[in-house]
Amino acid sequence: MVMIRTGYLRWEIEVRDERSPDDLQARQVIFLARPSYRIVRVKSTGHVEAAEEFVRGEATYDAVLRTLHRESGETEVRIPDVGPLQFRYSESDRARMPRFWMEKVQREANAFAHEVVRTAASFPQLVIASAALRAGYARMVAAEVFRVIEGKSAPQPTR
Fold first, then answer.
1. CA-to-CA distance for 112 and 14, rounded, in angstroms?
2. What is the pTM of this model?
């Protein structure tokens, strides 16, 4: 099982290269990151955090009530997918100018990696607030994207 971590979050990375439905001479690469676990329980300070999530629209009132009655002081955090991020390229670019095409793929993979880390950072109780660590996470995610592209890594289902 191969996955990538950003703090306490684990991500399954998927990359597909397929023909574009809109343009017969173009292809598109689709990036998607799914959390290994959709719902994560986080030990919290209790009802206050659940109420704040309700105010921000991230939780239901039912979740606030469940947290109020739960004695362990845990909050359920729902982790969203990142993507799908699509980019198109000309099939002729890939055949005639592989270096140019590879630079485009690298730029898109890096942008996607930063988006994954940005999404993970929206859960401060699960990801360290250090900018240096987040930059390192982005490099790890980008490296994993290329492992998936090369076929050396395969995503597992979300639980």
1. 11
2. 0.68
